[in-house]
Amino acid sequence: MFRDYLLLAVQSIRHRKVRSWLTMLGIVIGIAAVVSLISLGEGLRQAITGQFATLGTDRLIVQPAGAGFGPPGSTAVKKLTEKDAREISRVNGVDRVAARLLRVAPVEFRDEQQFFFLASLPEDEHGRKLVIDTLQIAIAAGRMLKPGEKNKVVVGDSFASRQLFARNIRTGDILSILGRDVEVAGVMEKQGNIVGNEAILMNEDAMKSLLSIGDEIDMVAVQVVPGALPERVADAVARALRRSRNVEEGKEDFTVQTPLEAISTVNSILTVVQAVVVGIAAISLVVGGIGIMNTMYTAVLERKREIGIMKAVGARNRHILLLFVVESGLLGAVGGGTGILLGAGFGKAVTLVGSSLLGTDLLRAEISLGLVVGSVLFSFVVGTLSGLLPARQAALLNPVEAMRE
Known about the structure:
With 405 residues, the chain is α+β, with helices and mostly antiparallel strands. It is built from 13 helices and 13 strands. It folds into two domains: 2-51 and 264-404, no CATH class; 57-257, no CATH class. Helices cover 57% and strands 18% of the residues.
């Protein structure tokens, strides 16, 4: 029985091809926006989560408060210092620490100047190993910096592969940073983020000398001793810094984060962004629903004679109601399916652009089966609900009056 209703609905939609596609346009746009943006948001969530996962669950990050936007440390009320790093190293449960500098500076190569991140490598062996292991730094060409080297740097993969300057940079090339010439000792292997691929590594003492930095630092990486709970060590580090920096609890001018806390923060932000996106796309879905309702009302007026004949040969009100509801639901489902294809295509296009132009895997579309099924069902429900009133009007038509039309 339902198969007959479906066939009649398909025939009606095919008979009015142009009108049907225009009717579904709002649904198509809304679902395409939902699928593309949610899939990209999910891909970004997974990529960022993966980046934090590489830090390991046994490591902490200490930063000045307010260092989340712009260059680390640049917006902080009060900088971290080497004294803070020493206080952290004495906390029970801390295995080793690595103080780091992260700054933006002008870099010149063959009379062309651009701004890039400079990142320091600790001079001590344990701190250096912690940074290299945490960030999973590997050398693709040349060699890693040796402690104490003043005029050597290691550059990210993008310098050698994406032509950030007029010519790709190779080992042995000379860069000028704030007027000081430095030689490229090595090129890092490609990492999963733009910042790492476009960063320049320098030894800590050389970077302090170059930028005239005193004892301030921008962040401290902390390795927790095996078996200790990172959350408890993080609390102990916070207590030690509050005493050292003479600040009250709740008024800290620093942050102590575990990777799990960082992941939770990112997930919360992305969830809010996705909710806003869905809300905006819902406006298009409402417009699409109104379009379906308008089309179905028009169909009732055009097919009064057909409805009258069906009632004359035995069709009941519920049969007419179901026929129009199935047709409106089918309009919604087809629009949803088309929107899914368009949204998936847009998401994959953004992924390709991000990979080729930006050299990053952060922009990638992750389309789940739940997203596909949910989008189709939602668009079907929107279409069905939009067709209820016109279907009811069709079902209540008097057969004699309908056949006179």
